[in-house]
């Protein structure tokens, strides 16, 4: 198949060549949710057009999940009476989605994403139960379709999907940039385009930021989606803690109950995926069994950045040689950041230099998860009498400081609000970078990605690297 580039090309391809049956069912089922007068017969008619869809809806209607009393359901109209109009509509939509997307040999990306979508849908619906009297099924469907553009791409993208998968495997590749390069638009725009062309109306487009963020349904969808993403980092990750707190505030329950609710919804999501005939997705929804959680935590810890003495010694040796040999600034700074990050195991490192006529600090070099944004938006005034901060303090006093230990508590007020907004809370290391007597800027490092405490040997290495880099830059300026 020829390449499709750009939003319209993809919408046409998905609607006409790849998913026309899904588009039709989703549209018709959604239309029934809009009309107050939708009848049992109209819903039955939509489902009865497709014999396999009918039999699947009946099978699911007879499952313990939807029909605990196990009263036999043989017709669609009986299903609607027993388990409810909205539930039957939701089952029809979910089954159509699974059948259309998993029909080919499903790739890992598609299965991961579909598992996350089911997890998000169950979380969102259960959150909505606290704050909405009705429309909980609508919330489920909107969360399920939250990434429908991306789902459709991984299902039907052919060679371009292979190409994107290869690109995303390259270390340091920016995901949004790679997607744009391969398909000529973003997944977010593709989802919005499909939602529009399928006439899915307010709720699905709401969930993509164009709606009112204070609408309880929209908040439930967004929370469900974020919880399903954070769960992949582990139930005890900092991101999950923050979301559990948001859920507690939103629903008026205690944080303990909120966490319980989240874990129960995750278990329910596994049950829902299995009930809907997508049992291959169950293993991809994060496990809530305490033993399994412990295992996941250990695996995550093993993946965390660990200090590497060989890398550290090599970087120190290289810098030592650069003092006497000619090396350019780029190579010096690259060696410095590699030594601190991969060698000393410091998760996030930033060199902020004096810029704009020495009037402000700007991020010049960064390394570590989530630090790319600093290059664009991190800056602090260099001399601010009314609100002094730790960056100008270390440069003026020419000393390295380990913030967050008792020895530096008296300097806590120098960690200003703008700093906390950029860098977050917790321990960090900070030191002046000088070329002889010339002020270059400030080095900053922390371990906030994992929230681990910093160690004495990391501080010693940090000081050593800063001094050596200063000597390299001084030697360079003398040539």
Automatic annotation (TrEMBL):
Q: What is the top-level taxon of the source organism? A: Bacteria
Pfam families recorded:
HDOD
Positions of the HDOD domain: 19-214
Q: Enumerate the InterPro entries for this protein.
A: GAF-like_dom_sf, HDOD, RNase_Y/CdgJ
Its name, as the record gives it, is HDOD domain-containing protein
Protein species of origin: Aquipseudomonas ullengensis
């Amino acid at each position: 198949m020829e390449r499709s580039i750009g939003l319209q090309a993809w919408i046409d391809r998905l609607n006409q060549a790849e998913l026309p049956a899904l588009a039709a069912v989703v549209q018709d089922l959604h239309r029934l949710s809009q009309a107050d007068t939708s009848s049992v017969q109209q819903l039955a008619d939509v489902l009865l057009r497709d014999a396999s869809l009918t039999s699947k809806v009946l099978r699911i209607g007879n499952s313990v999940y939807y029909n605990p009393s196990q009263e036999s359901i043989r017709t669609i109209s009986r299903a609607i009476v027993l388990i409810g109009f909205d539930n039957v509509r939701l089952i029809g939509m979910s089954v159509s989605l699974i059948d259309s997307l998993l029909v080919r040999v499903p790739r890992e990306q598609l299965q991961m994403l579909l598992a996350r979508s089911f997890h998000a849908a169950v979380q969102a619906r259960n959150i909505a139960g606290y704050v909405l009297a009705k429309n909980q099924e609508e919330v489920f469907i909107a969360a399920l379709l939250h990434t429908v553009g991306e789902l459709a791409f991984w299902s039907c993208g052919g060679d371009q999907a292979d190409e994107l998968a290869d690109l995303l495997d390259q270390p340091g590749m920016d995901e949004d940039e790679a997607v744009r390069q391969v398909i000529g638009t973003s997944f977010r725009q593709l989802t919005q385009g499909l939602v529009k062309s399928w006439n899915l109306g307010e709720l699905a487009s709401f969930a993509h930021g164009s709606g009112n963020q204070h609408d309880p349904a929209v908040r439930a969808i967004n929370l469900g989606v974020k919880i399903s993403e954070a769960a992949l980092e582990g139930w005890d990750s900092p991101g999950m803690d923050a979301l559990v707190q948001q859920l507690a505030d939103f629903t008026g329950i205690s944080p303990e109950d909120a966490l319980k609710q989240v874990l129960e919804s995750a278990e329910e999501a596994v049950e829902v995926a299995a009930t809907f005939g997508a049992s291959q997705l169950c293993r991809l929804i994060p496990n809530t069994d305490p033993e399994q959680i412990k295992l996941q935590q250990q695996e995550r810890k093993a993946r965390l950045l660990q200090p590497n003495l060989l890398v550290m010694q090599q970087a120190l040796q290289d810098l030592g040689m650069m003092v006497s040999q000619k090396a350019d600034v780029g190579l010096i700074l690259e060696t410095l950041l590699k030594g601190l990050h991969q060698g000393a195991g410091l998760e996030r490192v930033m060199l902020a230099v004096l810029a704009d006529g020495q009037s402000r600090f700007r991020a010049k070099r960064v390394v570590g998860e989530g630090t790319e944004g600093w290059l664009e938006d991190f800056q602090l005034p260099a001399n601010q009498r009314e609100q002094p901060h730790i960056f100008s303090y270390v440069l003026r006093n020419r000393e390295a400081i380990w913030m967050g230990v008792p020895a530096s508590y008296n300097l806590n007020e120098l960690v200003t609000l703008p700093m906390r907004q950029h860098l977050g809370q917790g321990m960090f290391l900070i030191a002046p970078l000088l070329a002889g007597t010339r002020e270059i800027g400030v080095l900053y490092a922390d371990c906030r990605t994992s929230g681990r405490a910093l160690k004495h040997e990391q501080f010693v290495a940090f000081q050593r690297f800063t001094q050596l880099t200063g000597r390299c830059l001084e030697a360079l300026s003398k040539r």
